[in-house]
Amino acid sequence: MPGEYLPRICDTLLADALGDSGAVLVEGPKWCGKTRLCEQAAKSCLYLHDPDKGPEYLELAEIRPSRLLEGPTPRLIDEWQDAPMLWNAVRFTVDRRGGTGHFILTGSTVPRDERPGEAKRHSGTGRISRMRMLPMSLHESRESSGDVSLSDLFDAPDEIEGTSKLDVEGLAFAACRGGWPEAVVVGGRRSLRRAANYLETLVEEDLQRMEGVPKNPGRARAVIRSLARNVSTLASNRTILDDMAAAEDGMSDKTLADYLNALRRLFVVQDQPAWSPRLRSRASVRSSAKRQFADPSIAAATLGAEPERLLDDLNTFGFLFESMAVRDLRAYAAPLGGEVLHYRDETGLECDAIIQLKDGRWAAVEVKLGGRRIDEAAAHLLALSAKINSELSGHPSFLLVLTGTNYAYRRPDGVYVCPLSALRP
After folding, report:
1. CATH number for the domain including 124?
2. Quick one: 54 exposed, middle or buried, by C-beta within 10 A (0-12, 13-18, 19+)?
3. Is 0.85 topped by the overall pTM?
């Protein structure tokens, strides 16, 4: 039987999307909890991975896909990409029925492009909305006190108060275990195996089943290993190729691009795009994305980093902590319609995370594991704020240093300081 269901931020987002759209596609990496989330909202379910009925479902999808859509609504179609022809069937049925909340689709892989002769998949615009899901944030895994709300920070309170729920050892453990729901529920040292199992399944099974991807597990591991070494950095494809060549596992630009595209299609790699504001100066803004995984535990497992090792290697821990912070900020910004970006210009001024909302508001966040660099981080945030042309891009709603320390507070210069494990949506 499935274990305890821990409520997710996406519960509310899914309910809202079902109220607005005829169908909702929930996408994200395997094992992040998509099916359990959607089962809470669904009135009937179709599991295409069912070992007993799956083959029959796939055959029926080819002959009469509408039959698979029959059932109380919202009807969940789990891992729809196994029967891509269902996409057009869902779109057509939504058009015929009218109204909202008919179907929920989940997907762990962006499906391949249509082969010649196959029916072209329509975009689904106006009928099927999309929702991206990640592994659990610290708030969802009940490891954040939730004393400080990201939403409330956009109202720029005069003071904030909060206390971290995790010490540095707890943060190291959370980064290595990751936000995989089954690992969170299991708890203890056993939960650390989940990320390693995920990595093994990814390399030996998921990538091997994908079309258009080289079938070499060793080289796939090498690509993932280089990405892990460069997590939370602006490493270019050339840097990754040089990294692999140094390890005597060189490959061509095209082969690397094929692997990276496959990892994106599996939602394993979720890079952090660059923010392009209007500046007062003529400095150019760098447009490269930061390297990020869907969860920091993927990088930790790839590097063989256990919690105790991270405590002895604070440099690596710092990059993984930033990756965990970006994961959580993405989850907390989602209810606000926010996107998490990063900033760096040609002068070297950078910011770990920019939260950009659809209504134009934005905030800047620096991530620092320890407390010694809080002053430096605050100075960078204030310098960035002064550099932005506020008449065109607006003033920042807030400036925040996100830390692995104990307490949340507002500094005399107006910069907020908050432990990652005290934050919530």
Report:
1. 3.40.50
2. middle
3. yes
